[in-house]
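## retry 2 of 3
previous attempt timed out at serialization; input unchanged, resubmitting
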Amino acid sequence: MTCLTFSVGPIHYFRPMADNKRKIFNDPVHGFITIPHDIIFDIIEHPYFQRLRRIQQLGLSNYVYPGANHTRFHHALGAFHLMRQAVNILKVKGHEITSEEECAAQIAILLHDIGHGPYSHTLENILVPGVHHEELSRIYMQRLNTHFGGKLGMAIEIFEGRYHKPFLHQLVSSQLDVDRLDYLTRDSFFTGVNEGVISYDRIIEMMNVTDGQLVIERKGIYSIENFIIARRLMYWQVYLHKTVVCVENMLVRALQRAQQLIGEGHKVEASPALNYFFHKSVTLRDFAEDQEVLELYSRLDDMDIMSALKYWRHSEDAILRLLCASILDRRLFRIEMQAVAFSEETVTARRREAAHEYGITESDAHYLVWTDTTINHAYNPDEDRINILGADGKVQDITQASDQLNISGLSKPVIKHYICYPKGMAKH
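## retry succeeded, writing output
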């Protein structure tokens, strides 16, 4: 196998610094979003953050919903906007939040997704196995903290849950954070799936703090019930839609096949950044300690993946060629879902058929025929809870406070088993 050498310099700031940093974004979901602090503007302008413009929020969901082309950049700005609203509500209700804490919370939510790789969750653990995007977000924040002279220290504490006011972290990351309030609203808007519409403005209006913890006042309980139901419906209709599951699995297997070919010494065309992560075994420690690794990851986005698919559709390898051409031309595999696992006999028979039809070995047929599960868990009371504050000051978990029996049901995970394989194998 040929050894490759990669070299990269730091990402430089070529953009001249603006005199007026109090800019306004016109967002199709929330309307005008104002930038209140110079440091917020500078973070948005940084290449690390601008990269989010080139990463799809919903992976390949646009194969089902053509309008689902919004990006992590859109979502980060929307979540930032809702954080501003939430903090203002809590301040009006008499909770002390300093201007420094307010700015830090805004930075924490703005950067909460900055560690996402190409196509967001779709390729998590594929390019960099064992490294979660939240861990990378923390490393990016630390690097930006150095770049901006320590101005992100409090934001990092809030992001990591180390700050002495837990409710600020809960606004960033919990089962009722502004991240979820924005992505449900935004994803519903761009997909056109009305079942995902939630009363995010009323939920924020009903936020309060008790003993340092985020709670929802009793008057907002119906909005919370709707929020949990909307999550369940959005998962089945969008995030875990069977066609989305199928095409995203096809993309995963295309990359895995390319990685196998590279490991066997075959030449596989890819961008320099993608090539690096194909040839190197990178750990979380590498990201934290090696500037070059983080810079290369910062140059990796959806465009690298899509351009690679366009190269690979002409590959000499039949499996890689089929997967890439099928994704690009939307000739998607068939997917079957059911409540119980598919038998080993069924999977083996399908793989033998694929091996025969496509002239590949049975050991390689798992790239064309596979089985797995999806899990829909709208609310998990074993994690951080959504707490309802009664008029008497008593705090209860939503499953106890709600008189809707389906809320308790929605707290239980639903598992579906699926199998994917090329359509019409017998006609090939």
